[in-house]
Design goal:
Elements lengths: L8 H39 L7 H28 L36 H18 L10 H23 L5 H5 L7 H19 L15 H20 L7 H29 L4 H15 L10 H15 L2 H6 L7 H19 L19 H30 L7 H6 L1 H6 L6
Helix pairs in contact: 1-2, 1-3, 1-7, 2-3, 2-4, 3-4, 3-6, 4-6, 4-13, 6-12, 6-13, 7-8, 7-9, 8-9, 8-10, 9-10, 9-12, 10-12, 12-13
């Protein structure tokens, strides 16, 4: 038997590299399933918070994203996000899944960024990100958005907006990636992108009838807690799977994910108790999700107690951000902007303080680790570009639809509820 010390170091390195490929592939395949499960989890999370007459409408919008966006991702989305070597846009090299099983490497994924997994596995993993991102928007537009308008919005958005931002940030050829902006699992690409798009649509869509005068409490908080649990569970694949390998970085990202969610729940509930007098079940669920959002860009770049600090800050700040909608008069029905937009921005900025190259040598040191302000500047540029592009394109799209087919249901249909008016179904007899 040969011991490692008796093998030529170069041969040993090659053996370890070859052996790591099946493990990486197995972990990413599990992560694909975990992230796919998040979209039904999101449906329950949101579904419990709407009124009973709109629960099927909410579930349908989320589940429908799994169908439409997956097809669009296979058709053109993946190619636009990861094809070609352009800084700003992909190309159609992989359109209609062409070359995915024969290509040796994706453009830019060489050297330190070489994939250990098959390109097809990477395609599937990124597809689940593409699916859940537009689904996040549904929480802001709940109770009054036409299903037909929703279908068109997420279809166009998934071809124009999402792949473009994903190319900028995720592709090694993207201009924000090359600038030095860090986003481990989608703080800007997913949460800020979806959150600011939700704001754009809400500004065109208008407020629910009766808001904010009438109380519109959640109809089924157990659904929301169930959805929180599914999201928390799936988020391990979301963040730890983004290591694209079964290694110490994946373990670090998984631990960071859990600790940030736990700390954010505590932060949210403490501030809620101090401000409102009660620590609520809805607050616990929302706080955990806020922490999961904030740690997403940071998960593979921070360590130690940093995820707890990031999570706690996110929980407290995102709770305070709930007042934005009443202050500015826009009806973000289920607090997508406070949790996803604010949480995503906060996570991207806090990363510039807590990033540590001892955790990930391909990252950068944050301000607290002697890195200066360069990373912070890069993060702010990435956030500014994402917000400006996503908001502008989404607002124009919403305006066009509002002037043509109409964005929102009629007053009568809104009073009846989306379940009956849009789908001719009822969740409860």
């Amino acid at each position: 038997m040969l011991f490692a010390s008796e093998i030529d170091p170069k041969l040993l390195e090659t053996m370890e590299y070859v052996a790591s490929k099946p493990a990486a592939t197995a972990w990413v395949l599990v992560s694909i399933a975990l992230v796919a499960f998040m979209t039904p989890g999101l449906a329950f999370f949101y579904g419990g918070m709407v009124r009973a007459k709109n629960v099927l409408g909410m579930l349908m919008q989320n589940i429908f994203a799994m169908g439409l966006v997956s097809v669009l991702w296979a058709t053109v989305g993946f190619s636009l996000a990861f094809g070609g070597d352009g800084k700003y846009f992909g190309n159609f090299d992989f359109a209609f899944m062409r070359n995915l099983t024969t290509v040796d490497a994706l453009p830019g994924y060489t050297g330190n960024f070489e994939l250990l997994i098959p390109v097809l596995a990477f395609f599937a993993f990124q597809m689940m990100f593409a699916v859940i991102t537009p689904a996040l928007i549904t929480g802001a537009t709940a109770d009054r958005l036409k299903f037909s308008a929703y279908a068109i919005i997420i279809g166009v958005w998934s071809v124009i907006v999402y792949p473009t931002v994903a190319h900028w940030v995720f592709s090694p050829n993207g201009w924000l990636f090359q600038l030095g902006a860090l986003d481990f699992a989608g703080g800007a690409v997913i949460h800020v992108n979806a959150g600011v798009a939700a704001l754009a649509i809400v500004l065109v869509l208008g407020n629910r009838k009766g808001w904010p005068r009438e109380a519109m409490p959640p109809h089924n908080l157990p659904f929301t807690v169930l959805g929180t649990g599914i999201l928390w569970f799936g988020w391990f694949g979301f963040n730890a799977g983004s290591a694209l390998a079964a290694n110490g970085l994946a373990a670090q990202a998984l631990v960071n994910t859990h600790l940030a969610a736990a700390a954010a729940m505590c932060g949210w509930l403490i501030v809620e108790k101090l401000k409102a007098g009660h620590a609520t079940t809805l607050g616990a669920a929302s706080g955990a999700v806020a922490g999961l959002v904030a740690i997403t860009p940071c998960a593979g770049f921070v360590g130690g107690m940093s995820p707890i600090y990031i999570g706690f800050i996110a929980g407290a700040v995102c709770y305070l951000a709930l007042t934005l909608k009443t202050k500015f008069g826009f009806d973000d029905s289920l607090d997508v902007i406070a949790v996803h937009l604010v949480g995503g921005i906060l996570g991207a900025i806090l990363l510039a303080f807590f990033a540590d190259t001892k955790v990930n040598s391909l990252g950068a040191n944050g301000i607290f680790y002697g890195g200066g302000t360069e990373l912070l500047m890069d993060q702010l540029v990435a956030l500014g570009a994402t917000i400006a592009f996503s908001f502008t394109v989404t607002w124009v799209l919403a305006k066009v639809l509002d002037k043509t087919i109409g964005l929102r249901v009629s007053t009568e249909d809104e009073l009846v509820g989306l379940d009956q008016s849009q789908h001719s179904e009822s969740a409860y007899q």
